[in-house]
């Protein structure tokens, strides 16, 4: 067994010891970049959690690799935010990852508005497959998942064995609340998606994202008209 923690060399005792040693988000990020070097990437959706993580990652590794899964269906505000972030953090290696199938080809082969007819297939082609390809040359990836977001995310740990992509998945913000995320953004005067101020706490593709009610669940605006609750990136 190698000393480095990988999917194939997953060691429960080692993971428990690591999480005992690194009990906050900064420690976990420092460990992650020390452990994996250039073989770790942050997959960022550029939501509020993403902005916080980009700022924290920049403090730890100013040349870190960051990818954005561009489905071609995001809000204009999201694309505008990405350009702001690139200007603010010019040393970060931010790459835009696009699916091999264009929206025109998708409509030709699967019909109009596939996200309404078969949202799981749409997410698979435009998000899951591109991320799988983007993770080929790395051993670990970082995600902005928080336990508060949903029941399905309530058990995530700082360090996770990701069966979906057969990588190690690092989640530094698991204990953060939505209020803490936004407070960090405002205190540090970070750019963020203006849709967050219009009752969009979770922002994905424009056709599949709606504002939430005042008392709504943080992710209730995603795929609101269907039973779908996840894009599939974080499901095994």
Automatic annotation (TrEMBL):
The active site is at 231 (nucleophile). Keywords: Cytoplasm, Iron, Iron-sulfur, Metal-binding, Oxidoreductase. GO terms for cellular component: cytoplasm. It is an enzyme of class 1 (oxidoreductase). Residues 217-236 are annotated as: Disordered. Residues 217-228 have a biased composition (Basic and acidic residues). It is found in: Cytoplasm. Its cofactor is [4Fe-4S] cluster. One of its GO terms (biological process) is cysteine biosynthetic process. Catalyzes the formation of sulfite from adenosine 5'-phosphosulfate (APS) using thioredoxin as an electron donor. HAMAP family: CysH. This is Adenosine 5'-phosphosulfate reductase.
């Amino acid at each position: 067994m190698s000393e480095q923690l990988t999917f194939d060399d997953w060691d429960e005792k080692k993971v428990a010891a690591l999480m005992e040693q690194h009990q906050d988000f900064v420690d976990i990020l420092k460990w992650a970049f020390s452990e994996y070097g250039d073989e770790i990437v942050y997959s960022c959706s550029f939501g509020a959690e993403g902005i916080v993580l980009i700022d924290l990652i920049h403090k730890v590794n100013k040349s870190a690799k960051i990818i954005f899964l561009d489905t071609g269906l995001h809000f204009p505000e999201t694309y505008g935010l990405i350009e702001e972030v690139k200007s603010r953090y010019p040393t970060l290696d931010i790459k835009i990852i696009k699916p091999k199938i264009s929206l025109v080809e998708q409509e030709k082969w699967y019909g109009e508005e596939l996200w309404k007819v078969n949202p799981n297939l749409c997410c698979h082609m435009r998000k899951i497959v591109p991320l799988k390809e983007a993770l080929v040359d790395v051993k670990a990836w970082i995600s902005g998942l928080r336990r508060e977001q949903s029941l399905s995310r309530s058990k995530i740990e700082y360090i996770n064995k990701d069966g979906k992509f057969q990588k190690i998945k690092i989640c530094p913000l698991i204990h953060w609340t939505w209020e803490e995320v936004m407070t960090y953004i405002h205190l540090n005067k970070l750019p963020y998606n203006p849709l967050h101020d219009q009752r969009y706490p979770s922002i994905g593709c424009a056709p599949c994202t709606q504002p939430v009610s005042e008392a709504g669940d943080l992710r209730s605006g995603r795929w609101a008209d269907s039973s779908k609750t996840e894009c599939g990136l974080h499901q095994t």
